[in-house]
Amino acid sequence: MYMAEVYPNSLDELEKNIDALISLSENQKEQIERLIEENSNARNEILRSHAEIMELQKKYDSLKIAKASISLNKGDVKEAQKALSEIIEEINNCIAQLEQNEPASETI
């Protein structure tokens, strides 16, 4: 007797299980590809947002410097010095934050 004759249902079940596993594996591969693409898109969005934040920070700093210049032109030297000191302090804080975040940004 052949094994196929003795266990015909078992072989059919095994074949069905193998087909199901192959199908499941293909679905998982597709899901992984979608997730990789979503991850890449999210990382790109983070990079774009970071660049936009940096650009807005530059504009903000320029406006603060312009405001300090206007104060200086009006003869309010102490106010201008105070404004410049605040700007320098904020720049130092930004640099410190960038240095803290530097290793994380390399992984993006």
What does this structure look like?
With 108 residues, the chain is mainly α. The chain has one domain (14-106). Helices cover 93% and strands 0% of the residues. The protein has 3 helices and no strands. The chain has helices at residues 3-6, 8-73, 77-106. The radius of gyration is 32 Å and the shape is rod-shaped. The two termini are 63 Å apart. Residues 104-108 have low confidence and may be disordered.
Q: Give average pLDDT, whole number.
A: 82
Uncertain segments of ≥5 residues (pLDDT<50)? 104-108
Number of helices: 3
Assign the structural class, choosing from mainly alpha, mainly beta, alpha/beta, alpha+beta, or little secondary structure.
mainly alpha
Strand content: under 5%
Give the total of beta strands.
0
Radius of gyration: 32 Å
State the shape: rod-shaped
Write the H/E string, N to C: HHH
How far do the termini sit from each other?
A: 63 Å
Biggest β-sheet description: none
Tally of separate domains: 1
List keywords for this structure.
108 residues; mainly alpha; 3 helices; 93% helix; 0% strand; rod-shaped; disordered C terminus
How would you briefly describe this protein structure?
This protein is mainly α. It contains three helices and no strands.
Explain the layout of strands and helices.
Blueprint: H1 3-6, H2 8-73, H3 77-106
Helix pairs in contact: 2-3
